[in-house]
Amino acid sequence: MSRVLISARGLKIRFGGVIAADGIDLDVLEGENLAIIGPNGAGKTTFLNMATGYLRPQAGTVSFLGQDITALPPRTITKLGIARAFQIPQLFLDQTVLENMMIAAAAHAGSMSAFRHLLDLPERKEVEDLLDLVGVRAFANRKAFELPEGQRKLVDIALALALKPTVLLMDEPTSGVASGEKLGLMDILTSALARQKVSSVFVEHDMDMVERYAHRVAVWSSGKIQVVGPPAEVLKNTEVREHVIGI
Ligand SMILES: Nc1ncnc2c1ncn2[C@@H]1O[C@H](COP(=O)(O)OP(=O)(O)O)[C@@H](O)[C@H]1O
Ligand SMILES: [Mg+2]
After folding, report:
1. What tens digit of pLDDT does each residue of 4-29 get?
2. Closest protein CA for atom 16 of ligand 1
3. Which of 28, 109, 129, 215 has the most CB atoms within 10 Å of its CB?
4. CATH numbers and ranges of domains, the chain
């Protein structure tokens, strides 16, 4: 049996007349890539926000490795081991890729120092290894604003991995990526996660990506989870096909 990493129980949240979470129960297991699918407005992003401390549920709890994290601030939750990628523009655009990575890694490790240059800090080696891992080492000395969109996504992944997460949450990692480049991005992303032993939750609209890269898929609908299971089963479920995938 895999260990339960994140455990959500009875999560509820309402915005005015909209119930964005209406009793969400979900476990994220060690070693898995869990996909979340569902129509716009179903509450997928709201769930990620509640799991990372950006939104506090009005009822229910989120725990991580058995510890109740429902009321903790995002920074503390990241420190415990739940990171997020593709969330906000995380890069300092005028700094190089390497500097951005060093800032993230050193801030996380608490090794920032007024007496040592950023690039001389002990995290340098692991940062360069991470850039190698996602294939953007060649861009290390380029300023972040110069990065092509595809490389920017990869740097975003490396940046999240520099926080040494146990679980990485991603809201639509392939959005804005040309369909011919999605496979390449997801291949690099999922091999990097496997290599670093990081589990993941990712919201995705492309069912080919879900089928190929998710171990389990959870279907969201009007603030509720309709069904959870292996993609091969869930994606052929008639109700899911009609209401979510639209076939
Ligand atoms: N901070 C907020 N304030 C008000 N309404 C919100 C807020 N966040 C989400 N909502 C609403 O909650 C519902 C679910 O939103 P969201 O979680 O973003 O859906 P999804 O990511 O599945 O598209 C939507 O109706 C959205 O408009
Ligand atoms: Mg969303």
Report:
1. 999 999 999 999 999 999 999 999 99
2. 43
3. 28
4. 1-73+169-174+200-247 (3.40.50.300)
